[in-house]
Specification:
Shape: globular
Oligomer: single chain
Radius of gyration: 16 Å
Low-confidence stretches: none
Strand content: 25-35%
Mean pLDDT: 91
Distance between the termini: 43 Å
Number of helices: 6
Length: 188
């Protein structure tokens, strides 16, 4: 094995994907995807992401007391697929806000995000001892709505015309999953 063939760092391991800390070489791909309207619009981002800004995010906000962000990697070929994690961890309440994106267009809709989400939820509930993981998704993001429900999230409500996206106001749908719901679904 030469220096370029170093074994991958694996933090959480799934069947087709694994999660790992970000590396400096992830910056260019992540920046490109976050500027792609197919990724940017569902995330609610509206300003361009510079390489410097993405590098600073990866270097400073990846793992903090209140944030945990990991890279999603396809096992086959160790290909970077995107990012997921929680922010605003409220340790007293044992709750956090979840987010995810899959960057390459050809990798969306193939179940990689659902598998990565389940991996992360297992970590959130079984290791971090969180009780609640919540998220917000735009009502126009039909793929996201289906994926979150498939992963076990429960729809809690709608914030009407909450965000201004591409020239119109859209509703934001609130979801959450509780530890007992997730753990109960794993034992069935």
């Amino acid at each position: 094995m030469n220096a370029n063939d170093k074994p991958p760092v694996v933090f959480l391991s799934g069947e087709r994907v694994y999660l790992r800390p970000f590396e400096s070489e992830d910056v260019a791909s992540s920046q490109r995807w976050l500027n792609d309207p197919a990724v940017r619009v569902p995330l609610g981002a509206f300003l361009p992401i510079t390489e410097k800004a993405e590098r600073e995010f990866i270097e400073s906000a990846v793992v903090k007391d209140e944030n945990i962000h990991l890279a999603i990697v396809l096992r086959e070929g160790n290909r970077l697929l995107g990012s997921l994690g929680v922010k605003n961890i409220r340790w007293k309440d044992r709750a956090a806000t979840f987010g995810i994106f899959i960057g390459p267009a050809e990798c969306r809709g193939r179940g990689y995000g659902t598998e990565a989400t389940r991996l992360f939820l297992d970590y959130a509930f079984q290791t971090l001892n969180l009780n609640r993981v919540e998220l917000e998704v735009f009502s126009t993001n039909e793929a996201g709505l289906r994926a979150y429900e498939k992963a076990g999230f429960v729809r809690e409500g709608v914030q009407r015309e909450q965000r201004f996206i591409d020239g119109r106001y859209v509703d934001q749908v609130l979801f959450s999953i509780l530890a007992r719901e997730y753990i109960g679904s794993c034992s069935e």
